Every structure is written in C-alpha cells, then in structure tokens.
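idk why but the lab printer keeps eating my pages so im just putting this in chat instead. protein + aspartic acid:
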Amino acid sequence: MEKGKELYSGKAKSVFETTDPTQLVMVFRDDTSAFDGIKVEKLNRKGMVNNRFSAFIMDQLEGAGVATHHERLLSETESLVKRLDMIPVECVVRNIATGSLCKRLGVEDGIDLTPPTFEFFLKNDDLHDPMINEYHIRSFNWASQSEIDVMIERTFEVNDILTKMFSAAGMLLVDFKLEYGRFDGALLLGDEFTPDGCRLWDTDTRKKLDKDRFRRGLGGVVEAYEEVAMRLGVDLGQPIA
Ligand code: TMP
Ligand code: ASP
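predcted complex ->
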C-alpha cells in the first residue's frame, strides 16, 4: 500500500491518503502529548505499541459486532483504515470517577460510578475540548439525533465488551474516549483505542497503566503500555504480513 499525501498530522498520529480514495494510512508516532499539546515528548516504541494495541482492540470489537474503521496492520507503526467523515465530538464513558470529572464536579477521586456515566466533548484543542451536550451537537449540526443515539449506545456497548476483557486481564477500565465517523451511510468507530485515550488501573494495586503516568510524570509510560499489551495477549513481536 503506497502512502500518498499527508492529510493531517495530529499530536500523536499522522494520516496519509492512499491510491484508494476510501482508505487512509494512519501512522502512530512516538510523540506523546498531554494538556492539549502543552506537554510533549517522544517516547521510544510508543508508536509501535499503540499501533499494534489499537489494531488488537479494534479486531476484538469487530469480533464482538462493533463496526470499526480498522482494515489491517501495514507495518510496525502503520495501519490501513477506512476513510471516515469524522464527527468532531469525543464520546467518554466513565466507570470510576477521576480526571476532569473530579475537578469539574468536586467528587471524590476513585469512587465507582453505578451506572457508568457518559459525556460529550467538542474536539477542539484551542478551546481545551469543552464539554458539550446533545443540544449543542444538534444545533451546530455536528451530528443528527440518530447519530447521537448510536454514539451513546455503541460507546456503552464498547464499555461492556472492554470492561470484561480488561477485568479478565487484572485491570479496571476506569474511563475512555471514542470517536466516530460516517462511512457509506453507516457510523463506524474511528481513531484509536490505546492507553493514550483511556485510563487503566491494576485491579489489585490500582497502579496507573495509562497516559496518566505521562501526565503526572510518573515514568515507565511505554513500559506500562507494554505490560497492558502483554496481559491482554497482544503480540508485540509478531511479524506483519
Ligand atoms: P478527562 O478525565 O481528561 O476528561 O478524560 C477522560 C478520558 O477520556 C481519559 O481516559 C482520557 C480520554 N480523553 C482523551 O483521550 N482525549 C481527550 O481529548 C479527552 C477530553 C479525554
Ligand atoms: N486532553 C488529553 C490529555 O490531557 C489529550 C491531550 O491534551 O493531548 O492528555
């Protein structure tokens, strides 16, 4: 698969056109950013780990009936994906209160949320990804009511699938962010699922195994991602056809 013109370069990934107008190449870089791009570092091997990790999760989700953009791994750091018309909204499900939720609502860090809660954020770094509601999404035509309904339902479905998967591997899926896009009249899960965009705690010790290690300067960031991958059975060494 020949990479064409670079379409977009985000904080951790770059996206290239291919000869097929319906497909893109996503390149996972080692760049790691937090606080909307204020803290940035290159972490060795992170692009490779995240590329393989996201492909693994997307395959698992497809197997469980969730339609995603993922086609196949192309190389250590590249994946072939369907070209989606992205909805500029982030869908967050939280099983345990932490992060911005605690700052915003003054609730205790670490309490279980029963039922899990859901939030929409606008994808806009300059505005620091403000929280928005369904009315904003409809009034600004970012998505239709039926797309909103699908995003909420699908994100909770992903939560059910992944909570069980991480739990079986000794981890708590604390919260995560998903992004969706349109393809051929359907809504597909796009972007990525990696420890950059979720929070994972060891079930017994509650040790952080996600990007909070970077945000908080705890060290061992990629090592933690590799530990998560190993516990799930993601083969980081398997040859890519
Ligand atoms: P928050 O506590 O900072 O709102 O984040 C909630 C979860 O969503 C956390 O797992 C990180 C993820 N997230 C992103 O990956 N990117 C974002 O821009 C936002 C707002 C959240
Ligand atoms: N808002 C997310 C974070 O704090 C993503 C980012 O800023 O890069 O990490």
